[in-house]
Amino acid sequence: VYDVVRRVPRGRVTTYGDVATLLGSPRVARQVGYALAALRDARVPWQRVINAQGAVSFRGDVTRAELQRRKLEGEGVSFDARGRVVDFARLRFSFGRVQHMPARARAPRR
DNA sequence: GGTCTGACCAGGG
DNA sequence: ACCCTGGCCAGAC
Questions:
Q1: At A25, phi and psi to the nearest 5?
Q2: Element (H or E) spanning A50, and its range?
Q3: Which residues neighbour strand C (beta carbon < 7 Å)?
Q4: Alpha helix (H) ranges present in chain A?
Q5: Do residues A70 and A47 touch, judged by C-beta distance below 8 A?
Q6: CB distance A55 to A85 below 8 Å
Q7: From residue A51, how far is each of A31, A33, A108, A109 by CA, in Å?
Q8: Would you list the DSSP string of A81-98?
Q9: Closest residue by Cα to the C1' atom of nucleotide B8?
Q10: pTM for this structure?
Q11: pLDDT tens, A18-47?
């Protein structure tokens, strides 16, 4: 997770789901969030990971969410009145080619 | 084993 | 475009 997030350039954003998909497990978006919550490595630009609606997720610590927003604004990312990233579709980093998330295609059970 | 809890997500209304 | 719902999955009890 950390390696993937570190590939997101300054001023761009990605989503929990995109990171999960890139890692080969499209349905573990939540776990990506947990990994970031446990993050201690300052080199990882965690602020660039937002949710699929283009907004900062704030379940849990609101303080963290505010910091995240300020950090992004400091990189030139702006937000609209509803807290959505302006031009989200364009700022969403592609990693070259992120496949679309197959919502209901479950991997075989073990 | 069962149950609950999330930095989540897509689809339907 | 917004809100709700059901689905997901891994970790902690």
A1: -130, 80
A2: strand A49-50
A3: A 25, 27-28, 30-31, 34, 82, 104, 106-107
A4: 2-5, 16-22, 29-37, 62-74, 88-91
A5: no
A6: yes
A7: 13, 10, 26, 27
A8: TTSBBTTHHHHB--TT-P
A9: A30
A10: 0.88
A11: 999 999 999 999 999 999 999 999 999 999
Query: Which amino acid appears at position A53 of this protein?
Result: Q
Q: Are A49 and A32 in contact (CB under 8 A)?
A: yes
The structure tokens 């969410």 sit at A65
Query: Which residue type sits at A57?
Result: S
Which one-letter amino acid corresponds to residue A15?
T
What residue has its CA nearest to the C1' of B7?
A33
pLDDT in tens, A76-107: 999 999 999 999 999 999 997 654 444 334 44
Of the candidates A23, A29, A1, A26, which has an alpha carbon nearest to the alpha carbon of residue A100?
A26
Alpha helices in A23-59 (DSSP H): 29-37
Pull the structure tokens for residue A72. Answer: 């992004």
